[in-house]
Structure formats: C-alpha cells, structure tokens
Amino acid sequence: MKEREKGVCGNPPPWLLGWRAAKANLVPGSIVPVVMGAVLALYFFHPATREFIERMAETKAQWGFGYSALVGIVAGAFVPEILRVAFFQRGGATQRNFKNLIFTVPLWCVMGLCVDLLYRYQVVWFGDEATLGVVARQVFVDQFLYNPLFAAPVLVWLYDWRNGGYRMPKDRFNVRYYYVHVFPTLLAGWSVWIPVTSMLYTLPETVQVPLFALALTLWVLIFTWMSENKGRRL
Questions:
Q1: Is residue 182 part of a domain?
Q2: Which domain holds residue 109?
Q3: Residue 202, in any domain of the structure
Q4: Rounded CA separation 193/19 (Å)
C-alpha cells in the first residue's frame, strides 16, 4: 500500500492528491451543493426568490459579458481573498493579498467570460429545456470536455507559473505534467462541479451565471489550497 501511495518520484499519486483535497474541503464542498439545491427549490417554488433571481438575470442581459466578467472577478478573486484574510490571517491583510489580486483579478475576469460563452453555446447546441437528456449532455460537455481540455490545465499552468515566480519550465506542457498536476485538480473539481452543474443546467441560461458565482468561490478556495500545497506531502 505504501508503494502505491508513493506515486511518481516519491510523491503521492494524483488520485490521492485529488482525494485529499476533496476530503480536506468535505464540509464546504458538501455545503455548496446543498445550498444550490435549496436555491433551486426556492427558485421553482418561492415567488419572491424567483423574482429576485430573474432580476439578476435581467441585469446580466443588460450588462452582457460585462456582468460575467464582474461575477468572475468578485467570486473568483475578491471573495476568496477576503475569506483568506478573515479566517486564516486573523483579519490582517498583507502585501501578499494584494499581489494575489493582481494575478487573480484578470484571470477570473477572463474565466468568467469563458464560462458565459460555454453556457450560451450549450443552449445553441442542446437547447434550454431542463430535460434529463439535455442536462446530461450539457454536464458531459462542461465537465468532461471543457474542464479537462481547457479550464483545468489552463488554471493549473497559470497558478504554477505564479507560484514558481512567473517562470514556466518547458516540461510543464506534456502528458506527465498533466497526469501528475492537472488530474488531481480534475478529481477534486468533479466532487464539487458535477453535482453543481447538474443543478445549474436545470435553470434558464440567463440565471446560470449569477448562481455559478456561489460555487466558484468554493472552488477557488479548493484550487488555491491544492496549488499552494503541491510541494508538500498532503
């Protein structure tokens, strides 16, 4: 068993890193799908909640991609950094927090736009009806095509680039790098995003991005934890 847990070059194998990241965030990771499920129920059965969410959708329709960029920045950059300061730094911001924002603000701005594009094209490809077949195809494209082929490797590469002093060795663009570093991220991500996207895609496309922000905040916390602890034995 110990030999199996050594993995490549004495490091834990990718599946174990992914499992440990998901396990370490089990409580917040389980809370988000529960909260999303509650919001989903309120959207369908509570008129006031439905009206509030639809107002958010109207704002998104008016602002267009600017809304998605802002959601990405707030949920992916500012909220996780605020939570880091509040819970792990005892309320004291440091220079590192501001340096983190210089990196995360443009990154999550672009990723917010990419997610919006994905959701829009999913409607074009499969329609906007919340049937089992439509939702299943949308979740498959999201989690097993968009995520492993674009979102996960891009985020891992960029965070490693930041954590490595903005130097990117050539060996970080090969199959071994993907297996050792990107694959654990996918495992941890699927534990959060498969249930969340399954719920998101039951909603109209116009309200998907506003509610996506809730889950994004948690995922950035999990991803940052994995990225910053990659060099340690988890």
A1: yes
A2: 13-226
A3: yes
A4: 15
Residue 232 has pLDDT above 80, yes or no: no
Q: Tens digit of pLDDT for each residue in 211-231?
A: 777 777 777 776 666 666 654
Domain total for the chain? 1
CA 149 → CA 155, 156, 174, 189, distances in Å?
11, 12, 13, 14
Contacts of range 120-129, beta carbons closer than 8 Å, 24 or more positions apart? 120/205, 122/201, 122/205, 123/205, 128/204, 128/205
Which of 134, 73, 80 minimizes the C-alpha distance to 106? 73
Q: What pLDDT does residue 137 have?
A: 95
Residue 28 belongs to a domain = yes
Long-range contacts of 85-89 (CB under 8 A, 24+ apart): none
**Dihedral sign from CA coordinates of 27, 29, 31, 34:** negative
Q: Please enumerate, as own/partner, the contacts of 172-176 that have beta carbons within 8 Å and a separation of 24 or more.
A: 176/8
Which two three-digit tokens encode residue 35? Answer: 């909260």
Would you say 188 and 22 are in contact if contact means Cβ atoms under 8 Å apart?
yes
Task: Find, among 140, 174, 138, the residue nearest to 157 by Cα.
Answer: 174
Whole-structure pTM value:
0.78
At 13 the pLDDT is 63
Q: Quickly count: other Cβ atoms within 10 Å of residue 43's Cβ.
A: 20
Please tell me which residue, 196 or 22, carries the higher pLDDT value.
196
Helices 95-126 and 65-73: angle between axes, nearest 10 degrees: 140
In a domain, residue 5? The reply is: no
Q: Which of 59-63, 72-76, 133-137, 208-212 has the highest mean pLDDT?
A: 133-137
State the distance between the two ends of the chain, measured CA to CA, in whole angstroms: 16
